Amino acid sequence: MFDLIFKKANNEVVSPVSGKVLELSEVEDEAFKSGIVGEGIAIIPEDDIIKSPIDGRLAMIFKTNHAFAVLSDDGAEILVHIGMDTVRLNGEGFTRLIEEGQNIKKGQEIIKIDRKLIESRGYSIVTPVVITNPEKEVEIKVKSGDDVKAVRDVIFKYKLK
């Protein structure tokens, strides 16, 4: 059934970083845990480079570089939020590798993080990856505890309504 609904290749969202998968219900942040921000998964990063999970346009990077959104050609909005409450670091530990507004490809490097610095300041590096569009169907392709490789592994598929 899902194969018929999710038949386009461009509706696959890949992991933006290698690491271990968590369900959103397992993260500390209530906005992600409750699904208010969107549907998706979270990853505990094992790498310092966060990449684009989909082809599209880099629609937004927070000035503190802790989160970015990619707008796909079909209108999907994919948010990658690096860490919990990391906005409070005011950009420390985050280096922007590309400016917003540019067309990007899946796997393109977006943000470099200093995991040790972020964690030494008491912040979690758990990274939610969600689709923020209100009208969509999502099929999660991984489960809590799975190991994923950046760009190689599909983490979810979507269909916009």
Automatic annotation (TrEMBL):
Identify one Gene Ontology CC term for this UniProt entry.
cytoplasm
**For this UniProt entry, what is the primary localization, expressed as one broad class?**
cytoplasm
Gene Ontology biological process: phosphoenolpyruvate-dependent sugar phosphotransferase system
All copies of the PTS EIIA type-1 domain together span 29-133
Enumerate the UniProt keywords alphabetically: Kinase, Phosphotransferase system, Sugar transport, Transferase, Transport
- Cellular localisation: Cytoplasm
Superkingdom assignment: Bacteria
Note the InterPro entries from the entry.
Dup_hybrid_motif, PTS_EIIA_1_perm, PTS_EIIA_component
Where do the coiled-coil regions begin and end? none
Q: Which GO terms describe its molecular function?
A: kinase activity
Entry's Pfam families?
PTS_EIIA_1
In Swiss-Prot or TrEMBL terms, this protein is called PTS system IIA component, Glc family
Organism, as annotated: Caloramator quimbayensis
Lineage start: Bacteria, Bacillati, Bacillota, Clostridia, Eubacteriales
